[in-house]
Design goal:
Layout: E1 26-35, E2 43-52, E3 56-59, E4 62-65, E5 71-78, E6 84-91, E7 96-100, E8 104-105, E9 110-117, E10 124-134, E11 141-150
Parallel strand pairs: 4-11
Antiparallel strand pairs: 1-2, 3-5, 5-9, 6-8, 6-10, 7-9, 10-11
């Protein structure tokens, strides 16, 4: 979003760019095209780069059940210098039982979240969410997508 619709000759303006990076530690590079009425430079290309830092990251991002596996895991990585407390772990899919290796992620450490399919899960697509609360102000609820295609 530009700070003004018109910039006088020799003047300057400000362009605000918002980056939505979800909860993933990553480098972002995007091109922003600015259209003007300047006959010599009708379009200006701005390169926006950012090094996105997060307090907590889920790796991989989803709890995936592939082929005939009955368990899947993700790591919750803490990038802060203080422990993160976790609570109220639940799955929105009744056929997926979830557990944590610990209720506290150590400072700059990690814990493992395990999802296990119950024995009588029907064949077909398994989907839902794992939700757990944290004591982080920036991310009080952590949501992890559950997905799989179950063969019998």
């Amino acid at each position: 979003m530009a700070s003004a619709n018109e910039i006088p000759p020799g003047g300057e303006g400000k362009i605000t760019v918002t980056v939505k990076a979800v909860a993933r530690k990553q480098n972002v590079r995007q091109i922003v095209n600015v259209q003007t009425n300047d006959a010599e430079h009708p379009t200006t290309h701005l390169t926006v780069t950012a090094n996105v830092l997060v307090d907590i990251e889920v790796v991989p991002a989803n709890l995936l059940f592939v082929e005939k596996q009955t368990t899947a895991q993700v790591k919750l990585k803490n990038y802060t210098p203080v422990p993160i407390e976790l609570s109220e772990l639940n799955s929105t899919n009744a056929n997926v039982k979830v557990s944590l290796s610990a209720q506290t992620i150590p400072a700059e450490g990690e814990v493992v979240l395990t999802g296990e399919l119950l024995p009588n899960v029907p064949a077909g697509v398994v989907e839902g969410w794992v939700k757990l609360k944290s004591n982080l102000k920036a991310m009080p609820v952590i949501e992890i997508r559950v997905w799989g295609n179950i063969e019998k």
